Task: structure prediction
Amino acid sequence: MNFPTKELSAWLCGRRTAQSLPALGEREMAVLKILWHRQPLSAQAVLEQFDGESLSLSTVQSTLERLHRKDLVLREKPVRAYTYTANISQAELISRYLADISEHISDGDLAPMISGFMSFIGAENSDQLVNKLPQVKKPKKPS
Result:
């Protein structure tokens, strides 16, 4: 499933908040998905993860450079080539996109977002979803 990040940005009419994420293309999203599963990786190792796609190393390097400029990946140069690590988790990326949508559609009111999400997943899938969610630990309140 392709996540339509550029289309989402256009749909949001270009309105961006201080916490808004930059628009991401399909290849940038694909590279982030690779880094979420295995990291750190060199550009060559990222290229090898693109099964069957005819991409050049320079294309992958350019994509990683764009993600680095957007502060979504970190890079280090332990030896001859850079290695890349995601600087944002998948959950944080989703959360920030949802915050953008919530701000644009309902002025930050979360009730319509939650209602819409529950309609999206459907009542029959809600129990299955709850069972898949990791146990969330509540932060300790200062004494």
In short: The chain is about 55% helix and 5% strand. The radius of gyration is 18 Å. Residues 90-106 form the longest helix (17 residues).
